[in-house]
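Schema walk-through. Below, the input block comes first and the output block second. Nothing else is stored per chain. Lengths vary across the set, and this one has 317 residues.
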Amino acid sequence: MYNYVLRRIGFMTVTLFLVTLIAFAVTNILPGNVALVILGPNANAESIQALEAQLGLNRPLYVQYFDWVVGLLQGDMGESLRFGDPVVGLIAERLPRSLLLAVSATLVAVALSIPLGVYAAVNQNEAPDVTASMFAFVGISLPIFLWGLVFILIFAVWLNLFPTSGYVAPTEDPVGALQRLVLPAGAMGFALTAYIMRMTRSSMLEVLSEEYINLARAKGMSQRVVVLRHALRNAVIPVITVIAFQFSYAFGGVIVLEEVFLWPGIGRLTLTAIQSRDIPLIQGCIIVVAVIYMLSNFAADLLYAYFDPRIRYGGDS
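--- output ---
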């Protein structure tokens, strides 16, 4: 297990290095001049050149990249051109809000998808299975932001149950925070449910056809014991990976959904940075989102190895 973890950490390190290269390259080939964006369209050439020298934009790109990576290793992402504050502080303020939304949405998805997937597999080709498959098809077809609009229309406009936007810190007003979390987390959770449910159903069908399941039934074990104790434990292994990917997808999806619900997280911060061409802030947001992706997949790898010992004992290449 120790060697397995070390290999995964090595892969993450290489991936993060490639992400820094891509983030730096992409933000430096964007059209426009950063100094001109800061000074405004009426700035003269001397002022632009002076600001470029002050920001270090006149240095070779490889020098800028090296200095930026050294800063990252020291926890310094630079200062936001839009806000004038350290990028680390801006991200640290908004990251917990996005994590709260993504985690809540994933919990909603898991709570709905696994029971639905198991129920559909046990009732294969019957009405529950057909209904669940239709729901999965609709869920996959609709993008996250459209789910958000549907939830706003039903639960805020028609039923007037929840507010449509805003954020309240749970430490200040737990009830108000929950009220504002329900719609975005529910919308994202429904969007994620279809993927996890389909994998749960497929995995359960495969396990239920195994010989040891038939043997358990032949011994007189109840359907409940066979499904929950024997089949589900083995079927959940590939589902774990899908849940991790869906959490990553949820965290990436907050960029759009936060704008729909005016949720002040890292998604809206990223959009503001892009609109303002705030390169240090764009780079910082890209790195943080990439790290969240890698950590969630790393957690999935560890859980996968825990449930399937063949992986940690050399089963994977």
